[in-house]
């Protein structure tokens, strides 16, 4: 979609840059507070999180089943060490 419209491509890129930038800040803060162990940079982990969420959304839309997104989100919880209730 955005390949044929350079302006749209630029806007979408800015959205993803902003999203990953804000997420990297949160991850850095959590790491500095001792709440999160990082084996990669906050920026790399933020990109991984965004890619996992976006991939889960796409897979769920294609399969018309929310289980794919839930599975992706659950894998992020494991990676981040977040316990679920």
Automatic annotation (TrEMBL):
The keyword Transcription applies. Residues 2-72 form the Tetracyclin repressor-like C-terminal domain. The keyword Isomerase does not apply. InterPro entries: Tet_transcr_reg_TetR-rel_C_sf, TetR_C. Keywords: Transcription, Transcription regulation. This is TetR family transcriptional regulator C-terminal domain-containing protein. It comes from Desulfomonile tiedjei.
């Amino acid at each position: 979609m955005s390949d044929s419209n350079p302006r749209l491509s630029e806007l979408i890129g800015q959205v993803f840059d902003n999203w990953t930038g804000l997420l990297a800040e949160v991850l850095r803060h959590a790491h500095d507070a001792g709440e999160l162990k990082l084996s990669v940079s906050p920026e790399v982990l933020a990109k991984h999180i965004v890619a996992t969420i976006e991939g889960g959304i796409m897979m769920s839309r294609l399969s018309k089943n929310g289980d794919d997104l839930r599975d992706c989100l659950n894998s992020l919880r494991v990676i981040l060490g977040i316990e679920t209730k």
